[in-house]
Protein kinase domain-containing protein (Paramecium tetraurelia), 352 residues
Amino acid sequence: MGNCQSEELSHSELELYTPQLSQYKLLYVIGKGGFGRVWKVKCQRKYFALKEMIKSKNQNNRKPIQQECYERENSALKTKSFISSQYEGSILNIDTFIHSGDLRYHLCKQGKFTEEQTRFFVICILMALQYLHKNLILHRDIKPENLVFDDRGYLHITDLGIARIWKPNNKNETSGTPGYMAPEVMMETDHGVACDYFALGCIVYECLTGKRPYQGKTRRQIRELIISKQVKLPNQGLSKEVTDFVNRLLQRKANQRLGNEGPDEVMSHPWLKNVNWSRHYDKLVEAPYKIVGKDNFDSKFVNQVLSISEYKEERDHNNLFQGFTYLENNDEQQVTDIYTSKQKLLLSTKYY
């Protein structure tokens, strides 16, 4: 599940909106994920996105995977204008709100996209992945639900809940979303940045055809399809460059996949040869897909009567959720300090 952000608020401004629940009017849920929900809320005539992570769903006698995700995401959120606090059975995160919706919503609405529109989406995703991967961060859950549009039509990656700093022996870290999960992750082998590029290939395939490359109904079915079949993008009406781009991203063997050597390899592909990256970084290029209307979220959520912490409150016997009372904001330049790792010494050599 993704959080939404748009116009930047200073830390002092955002402090005025710390998540004291009584200050907020809950409007409706705009997204759901494995560990909680995201709400559209209103406070002092401003709208915000409130991410609710429910503790009682995720407690165990030992430290659960979900709790590790909380800690990892809250650490990552120090790079953004985010405030975090606890309320009864939930951890609440507040961020600025945008109405443009995620790629999943618009994909369902449009059916599929043109090659030009898809190319622009890829450019946006690659700019974000370049930043993550050059800091040796694997997102591991790139999917349409975690790609959010801003009001200018640029896509942003959200949800670092299962992100990891790369390490050599990571075969046991197999979280992800079936249908976008790389074969090496699904088959519990060591993996690197190439896993995010496999997901990118799935997304491009879906944007261009309106269908996922692997359409099994269960995790097991998808795994069997990935093992038994090498999917290729149909080339009807598409350029040979985009067909090659997608097919190389969807290579089952990571060492043969476009992106195994890092983001620069993907960004230099012939399909992207004429991209003026600096103009895209500065948002000087007009998006070919126009966001129309407001509150571009699944209509099933609107007018749904729900409440925060509707799950039964449970005592935190193991003190697993200490440290979430307040999350200090940091300058974005400090992200390298947050993700300090000895493996950063490898940045100048190879992406693993």
Notes: DSSP finds eleven helices and nine strands in the chain.
